[in-house]
Every structure is written in C-alpha cells, then in structure tokens.
Write a structure and sequence with these properties.
With about 180 residues, the protein is of the alpha+beta class. Helix content is about 25%, strand content about 35%.
C-alpha cells in the first residue's frame, strides 16, 4: 500500500506591493490559475553560469508544476548540475493571475507518476498532444515510456499576483509569498 505524505500547509503573506483592500487568494486558487495557463517559462542556471530562460509546456499536478524536456536540451544539462529553478506563468493582460514558483526540479521516474503526468498533459493540451497533426503528437506516450525527461517542481516559495481592473482605480494587485516550512 502506497503512503503519501500530506502536503505542507503554506504560510501566506501580503507584501508591501499589495493593494490596501487585497485579500490573499487561497493556495488552491493559485494552483487552479497555474493549471489553466497554457505556457510556462523556466529559469535555471548551472552553478557559476548565466541564467537560462526558456518557454515550455507545464502542468499542475498533485501540488507541483511539471514539465518535460529532452536529455540533450540546455535546461536538462543545467538541472543536472543545479536543480534549483524558477517557473513562471501568467497572463499578458491587465487582469488575471501571474504565478512564480521557486523550487528544485526532481526527475520523475516512477511509472505511475509518469502515466499521470502524461494523462494530464494530454488533457490540458488536447489535440496538440493527441491528434496526428498536433505539434506534440506522441509526446504523451514518450513520457509514459520514460523516453523524455519529466521534472516535478514542488514550490519552496511561490508568489502570485492577481490583478483586476476597477472602475474607480487601476490595479488592485495582490502579491503574496507562500513558503513551505
């Protein structure tokens, strides 16, 4: 019987950049926002080297962000030297949610977790993954066979910024920091 550890409860705080009437969103709302965003930017760097930023596909699953890459990709090589990374996603609008997750990328090798990740990628990205004319057709099966590197980044620290336009004033941003203790 598999035993899973309970996810730690985050500590949330509003920052100096928060609006006077800001209310921290529930952690689950930030996760839903991350799940709904189409793309993710990953920032990482090998020790002593300049940072590397790249757009990629990402999913939210079981309290963590997941992404996949090839073994010869620069991000994979950097993560092999230094697993610390930052993932960011959001909306290019004045309203919406932006999310930044800092953590350590852990390579996923468990077959059940790989299947779950592949299923979630296919569900989120639909025909891009499942249709023969899709850009990433077959990637789900490649993930299931453990032929693509899949990384899980559980948030050590996360920031979200929810913006809303208001009639009386612009903004209404709330920024919070979530740290797992």
């Amino acid at each position: 019987m598999e035993t899973r550890m309970a996810e730690p409860e985050p500590v949330t705080e509003l920052s100096a950049f928060s609006s006077d009437d800001a209310i921290p969103a529930e952690c689950g709302k930030s996760a839903q926002g991350a799940a709904g965003c189409r793309g993710v930017l990953a920032v990482n760097g090998a020790s002593g080297r300049r940072p590397h930023v790249t757009p990629l596909l990402g999913i939210w699953l079981g309290g963590a962000l997941y992404f996949c890459t090839g073994p010869d990709e620069r991000k994979a090589k950097n993560l092999a030297r230094n697993p610390r990374c930052i993932l960011t996603t959001g909306c290019n609008r004045l309203d919406g949610l932006d999310l930044v997750v800092e953590g350590q990328a852990a390579k996923v090798t468990d077959p059940a977790e790989l299947r779950s990740a592949a299923d979630t990628f296919e569900s989120k990205y639909g025909a891009h993954f499942t249709a023969p004319e899709g850009t990433w057709f077959g990637l789900g099966d490649t993930i299931r066979r453990n032929e693509a590197l899949v990384f899980r980044v559980a948030p050590l620290t996360a920031f979200d910024s929810a913006r809303a336009t208001r009639t009386a004033r612009l903004g209404g941003a709330s920024l919070r920091q979530v740290q797992h203790e």
